[in-house]
Amino acid sequence: MSGAPLAAEDAPALPAASAAGGAAAAARGEAAAARVRRWCDGYARLPGLPDELTGPDGALRPAWAGFLGHLAALPDQEIAARFASADRHIHNTGIAYRVYGEAAERDWPLGVLPLLIEGAEWEAIAAGVAQRARLLEAVLADLYGEGRLAADGLLPAAAVAGDPEFLRPLAGVAPPGGRHLHLYAADLARGPDGAWRVLADRTQAPSGTGYALENRMVLARALPEVYGAMAVERLAPFFQSFRDGLAAAAERVEPRIGLLTSGPYSDTYVEQAVLARYLGLAMVEGDDLLVRDGRVSIRTVAGLKRADVLWRRVDGDFVDPLELNPASRLGVPGLVEALRAGAVAMGNMPGAGLVESGWLAAYLPALCRRLLGEPLRLPGLRTWWCGDPAQAAEALARIDGLALRPAAAPAQGAFTSRAFGEARGEAETGRLLAALRDRPGDFVAHEPVRLSTAPVWDGARLVARPFVLRVFAAATPAGWHVMPGGFCRISETPDVRPVAMGAGVRAADVWVLARGPVEPAATLLPRGDAVAVRRVPGLLPSRAADNLFWFGRHLERAEAMIRLTACLLNGAGAISVAEEDRGTSARLRAILHAWGAVPSREGSAAHLAASALSDAAQWGSARAHGLAARRNAAFLRERLSNETWRALSALLSALEAPGASPDSEAALLDQAERALSLAAALSGLAQENMNRAGGFAFVDMGRRIERAINTCRFAKVFGGAAASTDDLGVLLDLVDSRISYGARYILGVALAPVRDMVLLDPFNPRSVAFQVERLARHLDRLPALRQDGVPEPQVRLLLGLSGEIAGAEAGALSPEAVEAWEMRLWAVAEAVAARYFPGGPDAARPETLTTLA
Taking every annotated instance into account, which residue ranges of this chain make up the domain DUF403 (predicted)? Predict the structure, then answer.
């Protein structure tokens, strides 16, 4: 009944409630059965294509009947709430992706239904994927090794040598660890006969494993009862095997493994960060690495640290501008030479993208029989390489029914309108034939692609939509381990052409249903005494330290702006500048304008407050600083917890403009107070959750330096010799010290006590003295540049400042002295950057730091 809708009466009824359940249970069972029938009512398969929900007879497949039955046990309102909760979780935790060419990220478009595959069917898929991985590894070993396949005529030498993915500097290089491939992926779809076929092989730098992991975490969190009842195979063992396979390629027993990324503007940077955090890898960019004396090292705040293995997520020809693509700014000069020397292992090896090219598909069946001695279990689309005269003649004879695409391009980049066997006009056919005559080797012809369908949720019912399934295999010492699941892309339209992530495409989790009970393997933590105890600091690249430092500074700047706005709204704004141009209100307005939060000092307090809180176009507004902190956080995704992302997202939401016109002062004050609470939550997460041996020092130093600088500025403006009672009250509010002051002094505010509390009191956690003491403590614990006992510049500057503050008297402090302290704090910040961050002169000379380890 292909193409026929599934009528309500065709949906199977759920099992009746037992007599012991009583009338209430029977009613619930009938309601659930009615819900399933309603969801399936009108479900229409696409003509001539297999479907995952229904079999050839139109009946629900057993796996889907079970899934929908469990889902229907939840009331409609609860289901909607679960799905909405999943969307909020994705947004609040920053699970996102970027469409190539776009600057902004999009929330990850996860569908609410999984793709279900029975265990028996999955075993055949896994065997076929593992076989293709072994085959392509053998092909790569030959093409970059002896070259017998081309010499014996099994592969066309012209296609190999002319392929841009054949990287000649890697020819003859034995891959450290013995493998070209550590991760392989295959894009699969069902053919018209229902059998799975390979649309494309992914060997360059396969993406999607991290998104598969996130899909599973989100959906299992949203539907725990259904997930638990369906005996779904777990993903953690696959990731454990993959990490073990990378480690096995290294020389050392406990290797240091890095994930080489192109940076936060990569399409899949969020996925890469998820994987780095989950697998415990160091996430590094090309600028974080250095090749010296044949070794690859990571630039860290503690000096050079040896890198044993790099998991490559950068295109192969970009990894080394010296020997490969000289225009690359993503790679590491000398990396190919380090590979030749066997000093670093890489997964996957540069040049592995060669076997993604379309021309190879025409030869894979014969190669499988030659290299593995067995037929190809998972066939691809039937393909002809037009550079071979015999294949070209066969393709031309049936050209009207075939699709054409470039021979050397991987499948993902080649799906153009003519790649699907669409009707071609006479003019286009003429151009294609002319191109085939001129350069036949540039083209492959293959059977048209039409995708089978799976059910998706459109808000009220199920509809059939085309999908592509990506399956992953990891190389391990024991062989290839196939992930029991994968990464599924589903179109939101009936278009049956292959789909890529972008507008109109959603992802789906893939549930492989076990034949028996599933062992709860939900963690990568090893058992027993496999890992020795250590308390040394973790690896902190200089670039990460830089972003942590500025993450802290921007959060502190946002908090300072929120406090200034709250003070303006707390009554001071009622006095106009014209009436009292030297009053507290005027000073608040002036500092808001000077700090770039408002375009002018003029206007109502509400108007100015709305700008200072929410106008991202004003570079000094609280929202602008919050967005800057989020940009820094984007470089730190693998280091920040989901709780931190949620708190940061909540802070930015609280700072959004309430509407086109400024709201009332009371509503704006409430907005500012909510934002202050969320800023405090972010600070608390750093204080309580970040390991003191990791990046916490740089986050906290950023906040301490910024807080001390801001306090000096506040003291100059509101704590001068002629400060009024209102001025001093505002100063205490800005430094969040009014309660502490009131507990200590009962006679009201006075200049010297207020100055002492906000500037000199070492027991006040908001004072300048307290920030300086904490900064000194952090600097004392960070790695030293020299071992001669002489304090480094940042330490020397801070020691001098600490002495001046300790010897100062509040009543005798001059504005010039406070300004000098502020300048000294700026100098400390610059010295820290020069010492530890990538742009600093000392950081650029890591050979002066610790030795290789």
Answer: 540-837
Backbone Cα Rg of the chain:
32
> Which residues, including other chains, have CB under 8 Å from residue 427's CB and lie 6 or more apart?
none
Residue type at 366? Answer: A
According to the 3-state scheme, what is the secondary structure of 133-183?
A: HHHHHHHHHHHCCCCHHHHCCCCCHHHHHHCCCCCHHHCCCCCCCCCCCCE
Residue 847: C-alpha distances to residues 296, 302, 333, 564, 851 (Å): 13, 11, 16, 45, 7
Output phi, psi for 830, to 5 deg: -65, -35
Report pTM.
0.86
Angle (CA) 124-126-132 rounded to 5° is 105
Is-contact 595 559, C-beta < 8 A?
no
Instruction: State how far the Cα of 497 lies from the Cα of 416, in Å rounded to an integer.
Output: 10
Domain boundaries, given as residue ranges, for the chain: 5-74, 115-358+457-513, 382-446, 540-689, 691-709+751-853
Q: For CA atoms 356, 362, 364, 367, give the dihedral sign.
A: negative
**Token couple for 450:** 């039409």
- Bridge partners of residue 312, in order along the sequence: 260
Token pair of 741, please?
Answer: 């002051």
How is residue 713 written in tokens? Answer: 């500025």
- Integer Cα distance of 326 and 468 in angstroms: 36
Plot region of 334 (φ>0 → left; ψ -120 to 50 → alpha; else → beta): left
CA–CA dist 682, 689 (Å, integer) = 10
| CATH fold of 382-446 | Dna Ligase; domain 1 (3.30.1490)
φ, ψ for residue 750 (rounded to 5)?
-145, 155
Mark the ranges of the chain whose per-residue pLDDT is less than 70.
1-22, 24-25, 409-425, 495-503, 520-538, 571-582, 659-663, 692-694, 785-789, 839-853
H helices present in 616-695, as ranges: 622-634, 642-654, 665-689
Work out the number of other CB atoms within 10 angstroms of the CB of residue 380. 24
Comparing CA positions, the residue from 67, 64, 87 lying closest to residue 218 is 87
pLDDT of 423 reads 58
Residue 470, beta-bridge partner list: 187, 487
Secondary structure class of 481 (helix, strand, coil):
strand
CA distance 75 to 35: 9
Q: Between the CA atoms of 5, 6, 8 and 14, what dihedral angle is there, to the nearest 10 degrees?
A: -170
Q: Reduced to 3 DSSP states, what percent helix, strand and coil does the chain have, rounded to the nearest 5?
A: 50, 15, 40
Computed from CA positions of residues 449, 450, 455, 460, in that sequence, does the dihedral angle turn out positive or negative? positive
Residue-wise DSSP of 277-325: HHHTPEEE-GGGEEEETTEEEEEETTEEEE--EEEE-S-GGGS-TTTS-
Residue 754: both structure tokens together: 């207020």
C-alpha span between 733 and 584 (Å, rounded): 13
User: pLDDT tens digits for 1-34?
Assistant: 344 444 434 444 444 444 445 676 677 778 888 8
Q: 588, 567 in Cβ contact below 8 A?
A: yes
**Cβ-count burial 98-131 (b if 16+ within 10 Å, e if not):** beeeeeebeebbbbbbbbbbeeeebeebbebbbb
Rounded to whole angstroms, the Cα distance separating 294 from 310 reads 15
Give every CB contact of residue 737 below 8 A, 6+ residues apart in sequence.
757, 758, 764, 766, 767
DSSP state for residue 235 in the 8-state scheme: S
Tokens of 119: 């265990």
Whether residue 92 is preceded by a cis peptide bond, meaning omega within 30 degrees of 0, is no
CB 239 within 8 A of CB 484: no
* CA distances from residue 27 to 11, 31, 299 in whole angstroms, order as listed: 18, 6, 66
Closest CA to 544 of 264, 130, 141: 264
Angle ∠(312,314,315) on CA atoms, nearest 5: 110
